[in-house]
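RECORD TYPE: inverse folding
INPUT: structure tokens
STRUCTURE:
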């Protein structure tokens, strides 16, 4: 899953799609620029190396205030925007309006694929 994936793999056993999670696509424009795409959101999986649940963020920053929405490892989400951040982090805006996540966290590792 993530940028450039032709077809997403089937969810692992126990994976719980977030509400409204049908659809496939990429929210990255040619050349890697971030763009919004309401017609074809990208599908990402929360798959943290630390195995912990995560609250989404209110803004595209790792230390931004947390929302009340929590994702569990294996959850599938639709992403309508991918925003490059410092240190190669890509911030992911959830299509359901429930906040932002990030593809990796410095000092921790991969968070979303």
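DESIGNED SEQUENCE:
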């Amino acid at each position: 899953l993530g940028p450039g994936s032709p077809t997403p793999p089937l969810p692992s056993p126990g994976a719980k799609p977030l509400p409204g999670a049908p659809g496939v696509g990429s929210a990255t424009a040619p050349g890697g620029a971030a763009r919004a795409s309401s017609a074809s959101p990208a599908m990402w999986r929360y798959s943290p190396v630390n195995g912990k649940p995560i609250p989404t963020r209110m803004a595209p920053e790792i230390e931004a205030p947390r929302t009340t929405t929590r994702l569990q490892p294996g959850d599938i989400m639709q992403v309508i925007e991918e925003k490059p951040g410092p240190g190669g982090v890509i911030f992911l805006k959830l299509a359901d309006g429930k906040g932002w996540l990030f593809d990796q966290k410095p000092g921790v590792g991969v968070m979303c694929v």
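NOTES: The first strand starts at residue 42 and ends at 45.
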